[in-house]
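Troubleshooting log. The previous run stalled partway through. Resubmitting the same two chains, unchanged.
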Amino acid sequence: MAMSTGGGAGVTATPNVTPMIDVMLVLLIIFMVVTPQLLAGFNADPPKAINLKDHPEDADNDHVLGIDKDGHYYLDKKLTADEAVGPLLNQIYSTPGRDVFVLYLRADGKLPYSKVQDAMDLAMKNKVHMVGLVSEQTPGTTSTVKGDIVETPGIKK
Amino acid sequence: MSAGGSDKGLENEPNVTPMIDVLLVLLIIFMAALPTMRKAIDVQLPDPNPSVQPANQKSDQIILSVNPGGKYLINTEENTLATLPERLKAIYTGRPDKIIFVKGDPTVKYADIIAAMDIARGAGVLVIGVPPKDLPAAKK
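Second attempt completed without errors. Output:
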């Protein structure tokens, strides 16, 4: 039973696509999981600025109030009715033992300032002491203020 | 060539290449997803119930008013976006309390207010405050 080259079924020249399909499937699954979180929330284009302070994200204590192009409020990415924002903030920031009183405000840059003033007023009346106005770094710039840039991103103390 | 020849023997190790591919992709995705850093300008909010309306308002505090039409008032002194950085730098160099109050006209675009705060921070301001909303963002 000698095997002869070039006989019978011949040499299969098809590339092995199994690893590629594996990778593609994993990518597909990951994007299926991640996309709803990325798209969740709202359509706001924060203003651009240069001297911005880095705030490492702290999922347990951070709360973000978003205001989209049409002036709708999104508290922690969930659409929230205007009159419900105040009580919810109050509930969050009056939790006993809470020692972080910062609210991040992510508003569209084209909004009139009155909308942002309203939000800050709401925050002020509901135990928020400080507001972080979320902005985007103008491309190609870094903050000129000392201490703004946190050296080790992603590492929490 | 005989079948089952003992030249190299049967390779018995599992093929790990697909697994490594998948793991590398996972690694890259988590590397891209992790470093989330929020960039923001911190603003101090006013006291919601001031016990006494501060009658003795310190006369040396600096209020930057942003008015429509690109007019920036430092207290009562008119400035434009172009002259603002220089002027603020001159004021805050050698001034011990680096506090500014930014008072925006409600009709001004939010991005312009941020631009003003940005310039103030660049000029050495450390604390930015906003006046309570009820006080009209008025011209004196």
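Takeaways: Residues 18-39 of chain A form the longest helix (22 residues). Chain A has three helices and eight strands.
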